[in-house]
Design a protein that fits this description.
With 344 residues, the protein is an alpha/beta fold. Helices cover 31% and strands 15% of the residues.
Length: 344
């Protein structure tokens, strides 16, 4: 494992790491929910990550308290990030979880910086901050509390039902700042869910999260992602999914077609070859030009989902400009490090 170059206090311009060997504690827990999973507890230098300028994301900053994810989604784009630590991007990504145990205190300190201007912070855009590990490490209550106390706008994207544990904190934060919650539900087909998202709560349970948040006055949208070609894109499947999303009380639905970046592509295609070998050539043709499906295919799916959403009384997500909270302008470096980002 490549910990050696991840020094906690860089001394040269080439040292870009977030923590050092002496700051890493490796643990395993012999309980049913964590059997076979290894946790690497680290003390990070920075928890605010700036999105690269070329990114198409509608936000500039993210917070990611975990690396690796026990959701084990076979298509997860973030698998590639495990290779930066010489960790396996397949089963290793699902079972070797890096935990930034000082995330809440670090975020509170960085939010207090005079240089910080109160920009919107997105969470859950890399790996899920409400994955199974959060039940043990409980990092999100401290993170949300820090954001609430600084009236800093934020959003959370999750497949996890554990977010309901923090409902009171989310309501408190929503009283003082802009809070956006989205739940990821790409399909409702139970067989597809069991095979491509084996570590996640079922789509029905995720839609129950949407319903509960909405009932408590917190608007919740659904990112219908990923729409999986040839397996989850039949018109009947799309209709059933949008109907279920509408019934949950979601404020919006935004479709996103599967994309296959390096790391995720190899793992997903190996899964296709094992479970649906007759589709291998079709996937190779559809994704022959790169990580993204052709524009014509993306437009077709988006148009169909939006038509269904209009039929069932919901619309696409509002992608407005995040509100900024004015803060004193005196310089005081935040010390955040850049990171690659995308939604799925």
């Amino acid at each position: 494992m490549r910990w050696d170059n991840l020094v906690e206090n860089p001394t040269t311009a080439g040292d870009t790491a977030l923590f050092g060997t002496s700051a890493v504690t490796t643990r395993t827990f012999d309980t049913p929910e964590f059997r076979g999973i290894t946790f690497h507890e680290v003390r990070a230098r920075s928890i605010l990550n700036r999105v690269p300028g070329a990114s198409r994301m509608p936000f500039e900053w993210t917070v990611n308290p975990y690396r690796g994810c026990t959701h084990a989604c076979v298509y997860c784009f973030a698998r590639k990030t495990h290779s930066y630590l010489d960790l396996d991007t397949g089963l290793g990504f699902d079972s070797q979880i890096v935990v930034k145990i000082n995330a809440p205190e670090l975020l509170r300190r960085q939010l207090a910086s005079r240089q910080w201007q109160g920009a919107h912070i997105a969470m859950g855009t890399n790996v899920d901050c409400y994955q199974r590990a959060e039940g043990r490490y409980r990092l999100m209550p401290g993170i949300i509390s820090a954001l609430r106390d600084h009236a800093n706008p934020f959003s959370i994207l999750t497949k996890g039902t554990l977010i309901l544990r923090d409902l009171d904190l989310l309501r408190q934060a929503a009283q003082v700042t802009e809070v956006g919650i989205s739940v990821s539900v790409g399909f409702t087909d139970p067989e597809l869910w069991r095979t491509v998202e084996p570590g996640t709560p079922s789509p029905e349970r995720r839609l129950d999260v949407v319903r509960t948040l909405t009932d408590h006055g917190i608007g919740c949208g659904v990112l219908m992602a990923p729409v999986i070609p040839f397996l989850g894109d039949h018109p009947d499947q799309l209709r059933a999914t949008v109907r279920a999303i509408a019934a949950s009380g979601a404020t919006s639905v935004t479709p996103l077609v599967l994309h296959l970046r390096p790391g995720a592509r190899e793992w997903f295609m190996a899964w296709v070859a094992e479970h649906h070998p007759h589709l291998v050539r079709r996937y190779e043709r559809l994704y022959a030009e790169g990580a993204y499906a052709p524009k014509w295919y993306q437009r077709r799916i988006t148009r169909h989902v939006h038509e269904l959403a209009a039929e069932f009384g919901i619309g696409p997500a509002d992608r407005g400009v995040p509100r900024r909270i004015p803060m004193p302008p005196e310089p005081d470096p935040v010390g955040a490090e850049p990171t690659q980002l995308t939604l799925l």
